[in-house]
Amino acid sequence: MWSRCRRPAPDMGSIAMAEARQKAQDGHTVSFRSWNPYMPRDMAEGARDRPIEAQGTLYLPAGEAPPGGWPGVVIAQGLGGPMRNREMAYGRWLAEHGHATLVLDSYASRNIRGPETWKALRLTTAMVLADAFGALAYLGSRPEIDGERVAIKGYSYGGMVSQVAAFEPIRDLYQPEGGGFAAHIAYYSCSVVRMKEPETTGAPVLIMIGERDRNVSVERTQKIAEDLRRGGSDVRLKVFDCYHQWDGDDVEPRRFGFHLRHCHVELQPDGELRVEESGRKIDGPLSRLLFLATHVSSRGYTIQKNREVTRRSNAEVLDFLDGLRRGPISRAGQARRAGQGR
Hints:
- One of its GO terms (biological process) is proteolysis.
- Keywords: Hydrolase.
- Residues 66-244 form the Dienelactone hydrolase domain.
- GO terms for molecular function: serine-type endopeptidase activity.
- It is built from eleven helices and 14 strands.
- It is an alpha/beta fold and 342 residues long.
- An eight-stranded mixed β-sheet has the order 1-2-4-3-5-6-8-9, sandwiched between helices. A four-stranded mixed β-sheet has the order 7-11-12-13.
- Helix 8 (218-231) links the parallel strand 8 and strand 9.
- Helix 2 (12-25) runs antiparallel to helix 3 (87-96).
- It starts with a helix and ends with a helix.
């Protein structure tokens, strides 16, 4: 009788998984040092001397950190800001898979408010790069995180930031003391920026785009991937049969009002931006607004969820990040460890 009434023993694996999910869901706001450059070149012209307090949401895995610390991921936002069903959801998901994750909020860090288009006009690539490198330093300062195994992952505009952060001249502008991200992941990244001299940090790059995405040029993305390869990085470029933001909630196709497909700029080694076809400088709000007014298309692009592509892209990310569990990936990280006798 006792054996029939006795409750079954708890499934410790299920309990551990539930605890991991609960802790991952309990993200909390943190502050860290960043800067507010309008253009990347500003980092060499005084912006570094005027730090700001940036903020983001930190998600930590459950349990004790492994020897050496958890690997980390910085998530760079798209122009829509850190969304509950995208950046925040991936922050929790990555923490469940053992990565300490910091989701940037580059709008809140600069008190940028208002309609999405207005906010997007005020936020520049240089600002998000500043927050990304500031977050990298912050994660590296925490004892439970291995600062040499921190990747960056971005969506749309943030995906472009993730790609640009792989180039050595940019890393040198934002983090002149050395180091850099251990890996770079870009989801449906804007194909706006190419680097004139594409030397990279040596960290690998994963780029995933949709063939039907009118906001992204597949041909130009292929050129960006080749730039990264020539610069010294291993690159995985995955082109899926889908639209923009395949991992969102839009079961039915949704049109977005403009696209950046024809916006092409060249980033110089010193951080200066130039319009690719004319060589004209983009050095402030007025020249940037003029460039956007003459290159942004009002034809728009389509957003639609694709469950199968989401499954495949998530699997690609986990496979790609497995290297972070084995040690530093970037050339800079390997050199630093060698110098420390590790």
